[in-house]
Amino acid sequence: MSSVAEAAAQALRLVAGADPKLLDIVLLSLRVSLTAVAISCIVGLPVGAAIAVSRFPGRRGVIVVLNALMGLPPVVVGLAVYLLLSRAGPLGTLGLLFTPTAMVIAQTILITPIVAALSRQVVEDAWEEYREQLRSLGEKRFGAAVTLLWDLRFSLVTIVLAGFGRAAAEVGAVIIVGGNIDGVTRVMTTAIALETSKGDLPLALGLGMILLTIVLALNAAAYVVKETAQRRYG
Amino acid sequence: MTSTMRAPRSLLPLRVEDLTFAVGGRRIIDGLSLTLEAGSRTVIIGPNGAGKSVLLRLCHGLLQPTSGNIVWNAPEVRGEPRRQAMVFQRAVLLRRSALANVAYALGVAGVAAGAREARAREALHKVGLDALAAHPARVLSGGEQQRVALARAWALHPEVLFLDEPTANLDPGATHEIERVIGAMHGAGTKIVMVTHNLGQARRLADEVLFLHQGRLLERAPVDRFFKQPASPEAAQFLEGELPW
After folding, report:
1. Which of A128, B7, B11, B133 could share a disulfide with B159, CB 3.0–4.6 Å?
2. How far off is chain B from A221, nearest CA to CA, in Å?
3. What CATH superfamily classification does A2-233 receive?
């Protein structure tokens, strides 16, 4: 018990003192996951909205697959990206393996289906309500998808957060394609895994606290934004 | 190409020919034919399930007929701005200001960005919502939302306005205001085609009444004659049932 309490106290000191090594890890984590979320939104939101407002053969199949992809195991994604980027792989010449870029790629693959599948659901529900009105005005399908995405912007914040939460919390993909190299590709989750196995509990605990705090703060902020916006815009 | 203000051919009359709309084998509109001329205010009444709302949606192009034809005098060209508008029972407004909602419709209709705001303000003025132009549309009261919907339709200067029970959820004060706007739009030259359950409203607004029953047009008459001496037993029975006061 005392060793745990001691580790926690030490962890707090690391966090409070803004330990530079700790800070680097946190910043890299944020950089990788936020970049992945940004790319996932640029791809996933339009794809989700487009599927929501269109009718084509095989649409159900696409939706089932998209929903299933939400549960992609990070290690499998990591392995696939590893094979793709390894020296003998098709994209090996790019030399991206064990770089933050490789981690961004893996996390983007992991969360794009989440953003697309969830936004498809949200936009489709709204499309039910808006369809007749928008068609009455003469809006085309593409225009309707854009209109709906903008009109649902506050609900989509939650989806973006779900994507970020998934990206920031996963270890499997980033540890495989990043390699957990100190000062280069070490992020919060991989550091926690490593330090725990090494027995350096203060650092692991400190990082765990920061990770939790970031996720909590982001969710709280999003909640407030959504509530305020809903009260203001209905 | 730049011919000087060639007046486009009028959208009306609208000819509905032997129209049928069936869902799962059930005929909601059953071999209906009629012609709608420009000018008069046409009010469609009839019991629940008569096919009134479906008829409006078929005419407006929101539903595809199972068989039969809907022929406008000047057929609509895909990709060109619509010359007809519709106001629904519950206004569907976007999460932006009342003004932006009207401006949005103008944008879809291809009105140049610089001209939208002035036209939207003018339309909101006509429905008496100047003061609420900057207000988020979806938190307005039901009556105000419906007036935004009317302003949105009016801004487009449609030749025909379809209304599907526009005051069904509103209190008498709001209903009165909506009726005033509909009257003003008609005065400005828009053909009004309205479905209502409110017979008092039909009396106040209609020039002619169409009585629908089980997907068929049973009666068409000037408003006075329809309410005094309905020609069909179904219409007589309907009026009796709906007018207990």
Report:
1. B11
2. 21
3. MetI-like (1.10.3720.10)
